[in-house]
Amino acid sequence: MKLIFCLIWSCLWCGISAHFRSFTSLVGIGEPNRRPSLIGTSLRAATLNFIIEDFIEQKLDHFNPTDNRTWNQRYQAHSEHHTAGGPIFLLLGGEEKISKAWLRDGSMMEYAEKFNAMCFQLEHRYYGKSYPTDNLNTTNLKYLSIKQALADVAAFIKTKSKKYQNSRWVLFGGSYPGSLAAWARITYPHLVYAAVSSSSVIKTRIDNIDYFKVAEKALTDYNPKCVSNIRQATLMISDLLDTENGTRYVQSKFRACYRINPDVKRDVRQLFQQLSLPIARTIQYNKDNRYYSNMEAADLSITSLCDIMLDRSLGNSFDRYVAYHRKIRHVLKRQCSSYSYQSSLKSNSEIYWHQGSPQSGDRQWFYQLCTEIGNFVTSNEDDHLFGNTIPIDFFTDLCTDVFGEHFDLNKLKKAVHKTTMLYHGLKNTTSRVIYLHGSFDPWNGLGLTEPKSDDSISIFIDGVSHCADLYTSSLKDPPQLSEARETVIFYLNKWLTEN
Ligand SMILES: *[C@@H]1O[C@H](CO)[C@@H](O)[C@H](O)[C@H]1NC(C)=O
Ligand SMILES: *[C@@H]1O[C@H](CO)[C@@H](O)[C@H](O)[C@H]1NC(C)=O
Ligand SMILES: *[C@@H]1O[C@H](CO)[C@@H](O)[C@H](O)[C@H]1NC(C)=O
Ligand SMILES: *[C@@H]1O[C@H](CO)[C@@H](O)[C@H](O)[C@H]1NC(C)=O
């Protein structure tokens, strides 16, 4: 969530396989690991055939009574744990397609067994197979908004409640969907009884400088030299880009697919932004219990990153940084990496559902960032992790180039202000929301770590990263993570047994 914000480069990889999108970009939560209790015991569990998939008719515009256009939203259902009178657990989809694996594995299903819950997962409009419009041109994208997405959730609950009368609905979500779960609780309190909001990003900003600050702290906890060597490598790259020779050297060392032109500011920013992503990604998804078809991908962690950055035998800081990127390319089975602004612009400008960027959700997510969310991950001061190499206008220029001249910094400022206004009520008034955050998660700075309402709680889990609590539990989990899940169960039990 979840929610990392970078689409820009993820589209360059999407040809490979669906699993890799969340691996190479900072968005999405992928799929949870298999639950050990289900492995080998049940062929049905393996096939996922017991999970029903269907579509529900939704209004294109919930807020315009004269517009009667509709579309079909995908959802999935799992009823095996449900007994009459049990609650309903709804996992919200976000900026990627939904996967049935989340209705088999992951912590929500572990809770569902305990509470005899009926389980649903609802795909977010404009992602996966939930197509509200013919194509994704800028005119059509205007129905992609947080407000419309929350109204979809409300309509879904209303429709399904006809069958499950008097059942209490508990919403779950990680990253952006975690924010939606909490926002749905304040927007539709009569429909949403409680929410479990994992690693949600509630405070919206345009320029998210906190991200790399938290990331830096996570690396420093491991070894302070790890950070200074990454900083040093960035400085060395900047210096090399001053000469033609040096540029060629950088190009060949980082296996650029296209020539890097150091005179084009956007290309240079694109290069630094893309080089920062594998580092960010490594920290954001450090040792989560995610399913990887490629075991080497599961191995990428703060430890493996810093071990390389501290390894003298590999050469100077630049050489070690090159070595980590080589390792990433190896895991991704890539020959080269594109650091070109033009190719990023091109892929984000695709408007048909089955093309790369719309198919992976990158264009849609970028639209949401440019119009309502912001939170662009920047590094724009000399003492930031990547120095002054990733300024905010790198992103806002891309917004304008992809969606048109109205999509500029000013528009975004107004929109983000509105998003903040709409939802700042969460802080004081909303009851029955559980917020969970990990100390290594670079997004935690924008989360609600101190809710003010008496009946909402926030759990800060030391030593884990983004959405850690949402994945399948494992015997290898640190005790504080297991405790956090027990706390969730405690509160759900308390709230669900109240009259
Ligand atoms: C939508 O509304 C228009 C006029 O308001 C009407 O002609 C049309 O039949 C309606 N379509 C549906 C599917 O109800
Ligand atoms: C967007 O696509 C719709 C068809 O879905 C079309 O009617 C509209 O004119 C297009 N808008 C632009 C700006 O291309
Ligand atoms: C450029 O590279 C060549 C070959 O590696 C080297 O001989 C030359 O000294 C370099 N020139 C500069 C200005 O670094
Ligand atoms: C929330 O409560 C804090 C003090 O606890 C107060 O400063 C703030 O103004 C309140 N915000 C709203 C939106 O009520």
UniProtKB/TrEMBL annotation:
GO molecular function: dipeptidyl-peptidase activity; serine-type exopeptidase activity
Keywords of this entry: Glycoprotein, Hydrolase, Protease, Signal
Gene3D superfamilies given in the database record: alpha/beta hydrolase, Serine carboxypeptidase S28, SKS domain
GO aspect biological process, one term: proteolysis
Coiled-coil positions: none
Residues annotated as signal peptide: 1-18
SUPFAM superfamilies reported in the protein's UniProt record: alpha/beta-Hydrolases (SSF53474)
InterPro entries according to UniProt: AB_hydrolase_fold (IPR029058), Peptidase_S28 (IPR008758), Ser_carbopepase_S28_SKS (IPR042269)
Superkingdom of this protein's organism: Eukaryota
Similarity comment text for this entry: Belongs to the peptidase S28 family.
Protein name per the record: Serine protease K12H4.7
